[in-house]
Design brief:
Layout: E1 14-16, E2 19-21, H1 28-64, H2 69-77, H3 84-98, H4 102-131
Length: 152
């Protein structure tokens, strides 16, 4: 609950010909678009801050255990490289969409699968930090349920 002292005055969005305009002055179609932009910006801020938190954790872990950042990342996130069988299975499952021979795309498939695995490991680690109470990402004061995965 906000007190009179802590209550923030409404944010002026624009001034046009001497009149201040606030969120509540926006017509419904503009309000909907404005809120969508605000939510997108909030998600981007949360992702940026989560990335910063991971970097801080990685550096601290590396220093604490006298490791390189790569070694620290491998230990923290438990990353393994995808196997040749996984690359081959992905190709077999998607061959009709890929439209190129395996030997031309094997390296790219491996890169994509490794990147996806690393992203999932980072998200799982972030979730564990949040569940343990070690991390709260709070741009604009509240991101309780902001999904930290890009494109969400």
């Amino acid at each position: 609950m906000q007190t009179a002292e802590s209550a923030q005055p409404p944010e002026i969005l624009m001034t046009f010909r001497g009149r201040d305009y606030y969120v509540e002055d926006l017509p419904a179609d503009y309000l909907e678009r404005y809120e969508k932009i605000e939510l997108t910006a909030l998600k981007e801020k949360a992702r940026l801050l989560a990335s910063f938190a991971l970097e801080k954790q990685l550096v601290a872990y590396a220093v604490e255990h006298d490791l390189t950042l790569t070694e620290a990342g491998e230990q923290l996130f438990g990353l393994d490289r995808v196997s040749e069988d996984e690359v081959s299975a992905y190709y077999d499952d998607n061959e009709e969409f890929i439209g190129k021979p395996y030997y031309e795309v094997r390296v790219e498939i491996e890169r994509v699968l490794n990147k996806a695995m690393a992203r999932k490991a980072r998200l799982n680690y972030l979730q564990a930090l949040m569940e343990a109470g070690d991390l709260a990402v709070l741009p604009e004061g509240n991101t309780t349920n902001v999904d930290l995965e890009k494109g969400s």
